[in-house]
Design brief:
Layout: H1 4-13, H2 15-23, E1 36-37, E2 45-46, E3 51-52, H3 54-67, E4 71-77, E5 82-87, H4 88-104, E6 112-116, H5 121-133, E7 136-139, H6 146-156, E8 160-164, E9 166-169, E10 172-175, H7 177-186, E11 193-197, E12 211-213, H8 214-223, E13 233-234, E14 238-244, E15 252-257, H9 259-272, E16 280-283, H10 290-303, E17 306-310, H11 322-330, E18 332-337, H12 339-348, E19 365-368, H13 375-385, E20 389-391, E21 403-404, E22 421-422, E23 428-431, E24 444-449, H14 464-472, E25 478-487, E26 493-498, E27 502-505, E28 508-511, H15 512-520, E29 525-535, E30 539-548, H16 556-570, E31 579-582, H17 596-603, H18 618-627
Parallel strand pairs: 4-17, 6-7, 6-8, 8-11, 11-12, 16-17, 16-18, 18-19, 19-20, 30-31
Antiparallel strand pairs: 1-2, 3-13, 4-5, 9-10, 14-15, 21-22, 23-24, 24-25, 25-26, 27-28, 29-30
Helix pairs in contact: 1-2, 3-4, 3-5, 3-10, 4-5, 4-8, 6-7, 9-10, 12-13, 17-18
The structure holds coenzyme A (COA) and adenosine monophosphate (AMP).
Coenzyme A binds at residues 142-143, 167, 169, 174, 285-286, 289, 291, 313-315, 338, 340-341, 344, 370, 506-508, 537, 573-574, 576.
């Protein structure tokens, strides 16, 4: 019998008592006397008078409690051909020493620090070292281009950037340092210091008065025995800013606080993921995404579990058996990844032959999130693994799961296509356009009743007004998720897709609006529209329609190729932008709105009809012709 219903009911009956109890799992310097202050911030703040340190909870408390010799972090990189395990005592020593170096560079409590790094242990120590000092890290995913990094530098205004000489992608070394140099040149704000970790795969040029050699600085601090202590921070002080795609080219700086974040992560590790201290939990994501923040770094460490930092892919490093190898080698109890990873494994090894002979005896559960988990892939993984496959739904904004199936409380029956039921803290409503509750089975906007629970974002960085406007104004009293879906008669929530211009490419969240902004800057483009087209591997991939300026008569293929290069250069390879087609006109309503939904149906080969409001129905035929689907 699952304890879910009883637990959810207990939360609903008395949310403050529920979270006060959960907060006892955290090691506070001063426990909070107030659980929630509805008058603070945009919609209230959690644990406002609690004092703690997140790094202390992730490392020091476990060493003090006798876990010093237990593995805290396992680094496994088929791309660098490297493996290394750090015990809690070693991870603490690395982090506290690096924190001393950051202190030497002038980093103080409240300062922002940008971390633009590949999946190496130093990146994790960098995040923890910032947390130790009470500084605010902002990790930028390595697949973003210099211009995206520059936007984040200007918004966060850091004095220090932490980076490495390169990342490693299959078949190519991605030099990071030139991107950092270019981003600083592009940005209006100029960080004074760059701490650079030289990887053996590529050495980077150092600029004499700005760049500091990471290894050298850490070695001297270590030789001098210097380690920074944990700063005392308020629960409501920011731990990090993580930029995520919004509906414009200006990304949103999602703020995460220290106290509520730890409380929520510890609750979820135990009750949602069903993991115990000492067990191994693997989130196969990247530290540049929220999944990496919550479940590569902070969640497993706060619990006293062992986390895995995997610098590789599900396929091709070396093959589709890579995940099984890691699960066996480190005795992984639970794996969390995106459905696209399993679609890739299924594509390369449909019979699961590479699983043969692997000892997965410690492996209990597969968790999927980041994009809709298509029932085919879930059923395939269930049959192959003979274990529960749990879909769960969340967003960068919420920091942890809104709707899931809490195996720690006892698993509920799985329904393919649904991430299951709301977690405590999240009162989910399906609303129609007028803000009224939609009946069971009817699609609507998925909204969460305010206040959001601990762990969810209190606001946007320097953006209370944008927070209200983007998320809270359309449905007063609710957080608008911008996901559409429905609830069935058993209360299971089905999440079907975004209601805005965000698309999900291989579990990566991208804005088509941002791509349109870039494409519009091409000298020959008069107007354009970007839509997400269904893709068997990545879920969705972007496809652009370009209308050229009058008089342009260069070959269309040439212009399309330039458009592809432009998006890669300005947004980055992560956009997976490979397709642009030139069309004479875009289909619009009589009021001038581009009919993206109909264009998507045409591109996906689905049945479509010209909407009654269309200005000129002939244009849809032109679109189908350009795509070769007519
Ligand atoms: N630094 C630099 N470039 C990067 C990068 C990084 N950290 N991460 C990805 N890229 C590049 C890739 O090399 C690729 O470049 P290319 O166009 O030159 O081939 C491009 O960005 C697109 O990457 P990706 O979407 O990852 O596609 P892929 O074809 O390399 O791999 C999968 C496809 C399915 C194997 C891969 O997306 C995957 O493992 N997904 C797992 C899901 C995941 O991690 N989701 C995160 C949220 S939970
Ligand atoms: P991100 O902020 O990058 O985590 O992306 C969040 C978005 O990914 C959500 O708004 C959804 O559109 C999508 N998403 C994440 N998890 C799921 C899921 N389990 N099912 C359906 N969509 C999901």
């Amino acid at each position: 019998m699952s304890r879910y219903h009883e637990t959810y009911a207990r939360w609903r009956a008395d949310p403050l008592a529920f979270w006060a109890e959960a907060a006892r799992d955290v090691d506070w310097f001063k426990p909070p006397a107030t659980v929630f202050d509805p008058a603070m911030g945009v919609y209230g703040r959690w644990f406002p008078d609690g004092i703690l340190n997140t790094c202390h909870n992730a490392l020091d408390r476990h060493v003090a409690a006798g876990r010093g010799d237990q593995a805290a972090l396992i680094y496994d990189s088929p791309l660098a051909d490297a493996k290394r395990t750090y015990t809690y005592a070693e991870a603490l020593a690395e982090t506290a020493t690096l924190a001393a170096v950051l202190g030497d560079l002038g980093v103080r409590k409240g300062d922002r620090v940008i971390v633009y790094m590949p999946m190496i242990p130093e990146a994790v120590f960098a995040m923890l070292a910032c947390a130790r000092l009470g500084a605010v890290h902002s990790v930028v995913f390595g697949g973003f281009a210099a211009r995206e990094l520059a936007t984040r530098i200007d918004d966060a205004a850091p004095d220090v950037i932490l980076t490495a000489s390169c990342g490693i992608e299959p078949g190519r070394i991605v030099a990071y340092k030139p991107l950092v140099d270019e981003a600083i040149a592009l940005a209006a704000h100029k960080p004074g210091r760059v701490l650079l970790f030289q990887r053996p795969q590529a050495k980077a040029e150092m600029q004499a008065c700005r760049d500091v050699d990471w290894a050298g600085a850490v070695a001297s601090a270590r030789a001098e025995g210097r380690r920074a202590p944990c700063a005392e921070v308020a629960a409501t002080d920011p731990l990090y800013i993580l930029y995520t795609s919004g509906t414009t080219g200006q990304p949103k700086g999602i703020l995460r606080d220290n106290g509520g974040h730890l409380v929520a992560l510890m609750w979820s590790m135990r009750h949602l993921y069903g993991v115990k201290p000492g067990e191994t939990f693997w989130a196969a994501s990247d530290i540049g995404w929220v999944v990496g923040h919550s479940y590569i770094v902070y969640g497993p460490l706060a619990l006293g579990a062992t986390g895995i930092l995997y610098e590789g892919k599900p396929v091709g490093t070396p093959d589709a058996g890579a995940y099984w190898r890691v699960i066996e080698e480190y005795g992984v109890s639970a794996l969390f990844t995106a459905p696209t990873a399993f679609r890739a494994i299924k594509r390369d090894d449909p019979q699961g032959k590479l699983l043969a002979g692997r000892d997965l005896s410690k492996f209990r559960t597969l968790f999927l999130a980041g994009e809709r988990a298509d029932p085919d892939t879930v059923a395939w993984a269930e049959a192959l693994l003979d274990r529960p496959v749990i879909d769960h739904w969340w967003q960068t904004e919420t920091g942890w799961c809104m709707v899931g199936n809490p195996v720690g409380l006892g698993r509920l029956p799985v329904k393919h296509g649904s991430p299951s039921v709301p977690m405590p803290g999240f009162e989910i409503e399906i609303l129609d356009e007028t803000g009224h509750r939609a009946p069971a089975g009817k699609m609507g906007e998925i909204a969460v009743k305010l206040p959001l629970p601990p762990g969810a974002f209190p606001s946007l960085y320097k953006g209370d007004a944008r927070m209200r406007e983007a998320y809270l104004s359309e449905f007063p009293g609710y957080y608008k998720t911008s996901d559409a879906g429905y609830r069935d008669a058993d209360g299971y929530v089905f999440v079907m897709g975004r209601t805005d211009d965000i698309i999900n490419v291989a579990g990566h969240r991208l804005s088509t609006g941002a791509m349109e902004e870039v494409l519009s800057s091409h000298r020959d483009v008069a107007e354009c529209a970007v839509i997400g087209v269904a893709d068997a591997l990545k879920g969705e991939v972007p496809c652009a329609f370009l209308v050229l300026k009058a008089g342009v008569n260069r070959p269309h293929g040439e212009i399309a190729a330039e458009a592809v290069a432009l998006v890669r250069d300005k947004i980055g390879p992560v956009a997976a932008f490979r397709r642009a087609v030139v069309v004479p006109r875009l289909p619009k309503t009589r009021s001038g709105k581009i009919l993206r939904g109909t264009m998507k149906k045409i591109a996906d080969g689905q049945p479509w009809q010209a909407p009654a409001t269309i200005d000129d129905p002939a244009i849809l035929g032109e679109i189908a012709g350009a795509l070769g689907t007519s």
